[in-house]
Specification:
heterodimer; A: 3-stranded antiparallel beta sheet; 9 strands; 31% helix; B: 283 residues; alpha/beta; 7-stranded mixed beta sheet; 3-stranded antiparallel beta sheet; 7 helices; binds zinc ion
């Protein structure tokens, strides 16, 4: 076992996970709003934000799917030691971890059932940038509209059509995160968003 | 000295509740099941709300508790003290200073702002329960958006009373999808549920359900074209502060049946009085 497997967790788990959860909750409640999140120092390729989200939400009850480069010895050992979460394939996971391209196709993840739409996966997407520009977001949690640098648009539009089923997304980058729940309408530009609101 | 877990609950329990809160936020108005824990207080005291508060509080929070609008009931004081001791939070009675407000049966009069969280104590989370006692059936009704019976019930009210008699826990529809019980707030408070800047979280302990409204969510009180929803209240100004826009409690003030109407939101009323507003019954 490597030395950095044991380090990099929350030094004060109770209060640091409380603060980290508030960042995650604010992000999920306000789609597109970028939040700071601190306290974790996981080994690469996990970012500090990714590490903090996983420490806050995951344990032996939450199967994790590691996609692409994230499925490596360093990430597995660190998550196993700090969360105890079992590693599974995409169809069984509660949380999926990876870069956008590695997480595709989205059709393999659980989207919940009509009676239990909450039994669905949350995808935690590691991004090389995270900025309040790009795709336009409207829906619950958003006053008027928000913008967020999403890796693409079509996949999120398709996901929205599944509502109340569907996937939820957390985007991590460095020590920051943003989120996109299944309830958010995504469009390429603000004029497209206005046309959509006008049409509904 | 007794060693407490931060905010009383152990970390694994808080993680489970936090995951339920996130799913609640992603599916506004849908009731997420969670494994409710025993709390060192009786169920009637809002253990669902207490567990949700325990999962969201940080030591940097300023915490307020209201019980039917009042900060000083035994219930409110006890919950406030509980988190002061176990989570090290600051406490307040001022609505605008609070970052987390736990409430039983009211929404504060003062509009809430971004960065605030309103946690409701919920006794019966299922709005269809009085129509259908079986959980398996109500779950199916929600999944199929089968809300016709609910409208029939409200319409029966109209034929019997000439208006919709339901005045507390008046059902709402969230984002055109889920019918939700807003907890036993007076229907006067219903218009505040929608488009609110704060995050609203609902916790039912005995029934083991959590649900949520993200900020700026569309919330519509169920009604009929010929009988539109009305957020009614007693038609009086507050006897203490003179407010005409607040929800009022009726108090019996003497043995002769003398009555007085005062704001149910004590912080709102006291702030108005401190600002010089005076009602007809004020000393
Ligand atoms: Zn008053």
């Amino acid at each position: 076992m490597q030395a950095n497997t044991l380090s990099g967790g929350f030094a004060d788990p109770a209060t640091q996970s409380a603060h980290a959860f508030r960042s995650v909750m604010e992000a999920m409640a306000r789609p597109g709003a970028i939040q700071d999140i601190h306290g974790a120092a996981p080994p690469a390729p996990l970012s500090p934000a990714m590490g903090a989200v996983l420490l806050t939400l995951c344990d032996t009850e939450t199967p994790i799917y590691l996609a692409g480069d994230m499925d490596c010895e360093a990430a597995r050992a660190w998550l196993a030691f700090h969360t105890g979460a079992p590693f599974v394939g995409p169809a069984q996971c509660m949380f999926a971890v990876g870069k956008w391209d590695a997480l595709a196709p989205l059709s393999v993840y659980p989207i919940g059932t009509s009676e239990y739409p909450d039994r669905s996966a949350t995808l935690i997407v590691e991004c090389s940038e995270l900025a309040a520009s790009g795709a336009t977001l409207t829906g619950p949690g958003i006053k008027d509209q928000a913008t967020l640098s999403l890796p693409e648009v079509d996949a999120f539009q398709d996901n929205r059509t599944l509502f109340p089923l569907g996937l939820d997304f957390i985007f991590t980058c460095g020590e920051r995160l943003a989120a996109l729940p299944r309830s958010t309408e995504v469009s390429r530009s603000s004029s497209e968003a206005i046309a959509q609101v006008g049409a509904s | 000295m007794t060693e407490y877990n931060f905010a009383y609950l152990d970390e694994q329990t808080k993680r489970m509740i936090r995951r339920a809160i996130l799913k609640g936020l992603t599916i506004p108005g849908y009731q997420v099941p969670f494994a409710s824990r025993e709390m060192p207080m009786p169920y009637g005291w809002g253990t669902g709300g207490v567990q949700v508060s325990a999962a969201v509080l940080t030591p940097k929070d300023t915490f307020k508790v209201i019980d039917q609008g009042a900060d000083d009931t035994t219930n409110a004081v006890s919950i406030r003290t509980f988190f002061q001791r176990t989570a090290g939070v600051a406490t307040t009675t001022a609505t605008s200073d609070a970052t987390v407000i736990q409430t039983r049966h009211r929404i504060p009069e003062e509009p809430l702002h971004e960065g605030q969280i309103l946690v409701y104590q919920v006794p019966i989370p299922e709005p269809l329960r009085f129509l259908e006692p079986r959980e398996s059936e109500t779950r199916k009704m929600h999944s199929l958006e089968e809300y016709g019976l609910m409208h029939v019930k409200l319409y029966e009210d109209i034929s019997r009373h000439g208006h919709i008699a339901t005045s507390y826990a008046y059902p709402v529809k969230v984002e055109g999808r889920y019918v939700m019980d807003p907890s036993p707030i007076p229907k006067f408070d219903n218009p505040k549920l929608g488009d609110m800047a704060a995050i609203q979280l609902f916790g039912a302990g005995r029934e083991q359900r959590i649900y949520a409204l993200p900020p700026y969510t569309q919330v519509v009180s169920l009604d009929f074209e010929d009988h539109p929803f009305e957020a009614s209240k007693a038609d009086h100004p507050c006897g203490m502060c003179g407010a005409t826009d607040s929800y009022l409690d009726e108090l019996i003030i003497d043995d002769l049946g003398g009555r007085m109407f005062v704001c149910s939101d004590t912080d709102y009323c006291e702030a108005r009085q401190a600002a010089g507003h005076k009602g007809k019954d004020a000393a």
